Amino acid sequence: MPDLFEVKGAAKVRCFGQKSALDGLTQPAGTLIGRITDDEVIFVGQPGTAAALVEDLQGQLSGEGNAALVIDHTDGWSFFSLVGEGCEEVFAREANWKLPVSDGAPVFTVGRVCHVAGKLFVRPNRIDIMTGAEVHLHVREALNHAGHKVNMHEIEAPAVDPIGVGTEGVTVS
């Protein structure tokens, strides 16, 4: 049975710039990375790491001048994790599209979840869902309702490594 938890304060830092500049970024340790478009990348880090991520990424893009931008959007996004066997069934009840198939490697995707726009990191037995902070309560309630059929429980986020990447980070395609 799956668990649901919110990772409060997970760092969310977006980078905008030319494709070649973003392709050259080195993923900071302990982060998830998702390519949204050719000119946009998002990094998600452990709670409390946003300032360090911004500093690192601004340093990496400093040679781009005004052609690149690094923005801390931590306060603008919620981050929920569905973890455990059955998480895909909970997701299917709140989305009208099929998750990409993962052969074990993580996958980044975007789409509507709980009737709102979402950015997802999909791993075996784990789906991390980012939505706008303004709909955070709606998303929590919808996911909890969807999880009743599979005995999902809402729990506190793990105190250590709540985004599930360790210190090395997980590159998401």
Using brief descriptors, characterize the structure shown:
6-stranded mixed β-sheet, 11 strands, 5-stranded mixed β-sheet, 4 helices, 173 residues, Gyrase A, domain 2, Alpha-Beta Plaits, 35% strand, alpha+beta
The gist of it:
The chain has helices spanning 19-23, 50-60, 87-93, 136-147; strands at 3-6, 11-16, 31-37, 40-45, 69-72, 77-83, 107-113, 116-123, 126-132, 153-154, 170-171. By secondary structure, it is α+β, with helices and mostly antiparallel strands.
* Total number of strands: 11
Strand order in space, largest sheet: 7-8-9-6-1-10
- Helix-strand sequence: EEHEEHEEHEEEHEE
Largest sheet: 6 strands, mixed
CATH fold group of the largest domain: Gyrase A, domain 2
Strand fraction = 25-35%
How large is the radius of gyration? 16 Å
Instruction: Give the number of helices.
Output: 4
CATH top-level class of the largest domain: Alpha Beta
Overall geometry comes to elongated
CATH architecture of the largest domain: 2-Layer Sandwich
Q: By CATH's scheme, which homologous superfamily of the largest domain applies?
A: Probable tRNA modification gtpase trme, domain 1
Chain-averaged pLDDT: 92
Q: Give start-end ranges of low-pLDDT stretches.
A: none
Number of domains: 2
* Percent in helix: 10-25%
The structural class is alpha+beta
- CA distance, first residue to last residue: 27 Å
Question: What's the layout of helices and strands?
Answer:
Blueprint: E1 3-6, E2 11-16, H1 19-23, E3 31-37, E4 40-45, H2 50-60, E5 69-72, E6 77-83, H3 87-93, E7 107-113, E8 116-123, E9 126-132, H4 136-147, E10 153-154, E11 170-171
Parallel strand pairs: 1-10, 3-11
Antiparallel strand pairs: 1-6, 2-4, 2-5, 3-4, 6-9, 7-8, 8-9
